[in-house]
Hints:
The complex is a heterodimer.
Chain A: H1 2-16, H2 18-32, H3 34-51, H4 53-56, H5 67-73, H6 93-129, H7 131-145, H8 149-158, H9 165-192, H10 195-202, H11 207-243, H12 256-263, H13 272-299
Helix pairs in contact in A: 1-10, 2-13, 3-6, 3-13, 6-7, 6-9, 6-11, 7-9, 8-9, 9-11, 10-11, 11-12, 11-13, 12-13
Chain B: H1 2-29, H2 34-39, H3 45-54, H4 61-73, H5 87-122, H6 127-141, H7 144-158, H8 181-187, H9 191-228, H10 231-238, H11 243-255, H12 257-280, H13 286-295, H14 299-327, H15 330-333
Helix pairs in contact in B: 1-14, 5-6, 5-9, 5-12, 6-9, 7-9, 7-12, 8-9, 9-11, 9-12, 10-11, 12-13, 12-14, 13-14
Amino acid sequence: MTTLLTRKKDRIDELAEHGDSLSRDAFRRLSRNPVAILGAVIVLLFVLVAIFAPLLAPKDPYFRYLIDEVRQNSPLPARPGFPLGADQNGRDVLSRLIVGARQSLIVGVLATVAGLVFGMLIGGVAGALGGWVDTLLMRFVDILLSVPSLLLAISIAAVFKSANQWTVIAAVAIVSVPIFARLLRGAMLAQRHADHVLAARALGVHERSIVLRHMLPNSLSAVIVQATLTLATSIIDAAALSFLGLGDADPNRAEWGAMLGDAQTYFDIQPSLAIWPALCIIVVALGFTLFGESLREALDPKNRR
Amino acid sequence: MLRYVVRRLIGVIPTLFVLSLLLYVWLRSLPGGPATALLGDKATPEKIASLNHTLGLDQPLWVQYAKFIGRVFTGDFGSSLASSRPVGAELADALPATIELSFAALLFAVALGIPLGYLSAKLRGGFFDNFTVIATLVGVAVPVFFLGYMLKQWFAVDLGWLPPSGRVTAGLDQTKITGFLILDGILTREWDVVWDAIRHLILPAITLGTIPLAVIVRITRASILDVLNEDYVRTAEAKGLRARTIRNRHVLRNGLLPVSTTIGLQAGLLLAGAVLTEKVFVWGGIGSLLAEGIEKRDYPRLQALILVAALTYVLVNLLVDLSYALIDPRVRVR
């Protein structure tokens, strides 16, 4: 009897973990998709630059090399030693861009992770418990969703007296909380009555392990896809906050959004000062989006062959 | 249908109520209050206390909130701290500018997005399709304000084709009726104003419309692709219907349903994008008010603006849902 039961449980685990084979299948399809590879290469390059930034930067990104010349005529165009020119404080733009990769990655990743954790907590609890807890939590989420995302970020960032890296991360993270919450709750609700969950329940598997071992893992693919896409929007939203004067107030910090925000003052004199950080943001956001969209396609069981 | 409308309308009220409460407590309870913002960092504590008293900011939060809600129902949002004008009047002045801009942006996005998405789906896998799909991904990745600056630099500064900022050339004689420049111009037959306003509108509308355009193209493409694979389309083809009949009666009619929902969701993007676009083009609408309100920590103004933005967003989506129920009877039953 015990052996029969164990075998049944194994069989259920196998059914529940068809996510596993799906992920293997998805990986196979991803590695054949040129768009996914392009996205992955961009993301990988970005991460590598971010990690090795201090080694890669040819100059000190914070030192005001050309400060005397800058005083007369704002940012400087490219010249020997400064391949992308110098900014309004006489600092090397190329080095700041390289170091900025790290800062932008930190902002993007921390904001996404914070949004993911809180969103999954809310969505997971709502989806697992159902009933009035679900109703209450989802009402709260709907209220957050009823404010257009950037406006929500603005209103949160605006209440802090002095903006810094953390206020930006908090503002950008809160925007994605309701999205993750809704997504996970939806995916979990869809499974409450799925065959493998019913079977596990019928076998007397503990409710907690049904949620943790069967419902949660099978709901993760949608969340992972969303997280990849959120990395892109987080970086763009952080740039928008900088543009509105709600970004990191530390003038030393090299972050792409802040660089782009600062460059607006000099746009008609030295547009390249804005173009370089903007290009970095666009390429990286594109990389995450390409990879995320390919991932979504690959994980969609409809596309299984 | 009526019951559906009423049910949806009632569902909106608690959302807005709780939202206003959260907004109120959130905005007021944090450091760096408006008195500091108005008087500057060097103000003495006595001065700050006295201004707080004049503004009623020293009363308990719930009293302040109750007063606020009472006034909101009479359309009175209090006075802006920055300009000392009633926020309601500020809003009324700025609203037409933003509506005009958003409408133009949406028109640009829909008029271009649906045909592009349809063509892309029809030519699936071809060069045009691949190009469009990549272009939409790039379109979403470009920061709105950066796009605005680039367009302004190229078409207004370098080429001089279009004006760089504002809604209308200063000094141009115009009669104000509704506050919508183009509409007013048409009503009073001041064609020079109409032409001038349209020229001013083009660059901001493209800036604001780019992200919605990308989204609409993608949704249209995906939705049309789904429909093209449906059995009823194959049946229609098999029974020899003309291509045009299949397109109009079967493919477009069914394929554009999800697109209408998406257009409603764009309202949020437009509102947020308007803040950025208006700052770039010195447009003088809601977005400009908001940007200034942020700088000056103008709480009454921020509160009113965010509440109005949320209300607009909720109502537009409600309208879209209702129109959806009108087009597709299945929705009403659920």
